[in-house]
Amino acid sequence: MTSSVKAILDLKGRDVVTAGPNTTVAEAAVILSKKKIGAIVVVGMENRISGMFTERDLVHAIAKHGKDGLDQSLGQVMTAKVYRCHEETTVNELMELMTSRRFRHVPVESHGKLAGIISIGDVVKSRIAEVEREAEDIKAYIAG
């Protein structure tokens, strides 16, 4: 039985680092560095997801605008088309989405609002735990 996004969030927590669309790229870079994370969810009114700002977006902003890219707002450089998942999404479905779309972070949405974030590391950790449980179950069955 494959686990769900809800199970991952219940274990790891639902805290998400967010920023508003007017935050500058330079400010966001400091947040990424201090928090040792690879993505910030950009939120608008009522904690609704507006976009994602990732390390890739940072690189693109600098490549396109040079040092002036640091003064751009997240609203100008973020990834606006954000794929989301829900608590009912299975780990297998999420792995497929992350692999096919080449995402390392997927925000979790509930009733139109941000409810958490799942990283590829969270998915791998969950899948390893699931395989280990299955192996233990098989050992117990064989031992009788």
Automatic annotation (TrEMBL):
The keyword Nucleus does not apply. The keyword ATP-binding does not apply. InterPro entries: CBS_dom (IPR000644), CBS_dom_sf (IPR046342), CBSX3_CBS_dom (IPR044725), Diverse_CBS-Domain (IPR051257). CDD domains: CBS_pair_bac_euk. Pfam families: CBS. Keywords: CBS domain. Residues 12-69, 78-133 form the CBS domain. PROSITE patterns: CBS. PANTHER family: CBS DOMAIN-CONTAINING PROTEIN, CBS DOMAIN-CONTAINING PROTEIN CBSX3, MITOCHONDRIAL. This is CBS domain-containing protein.
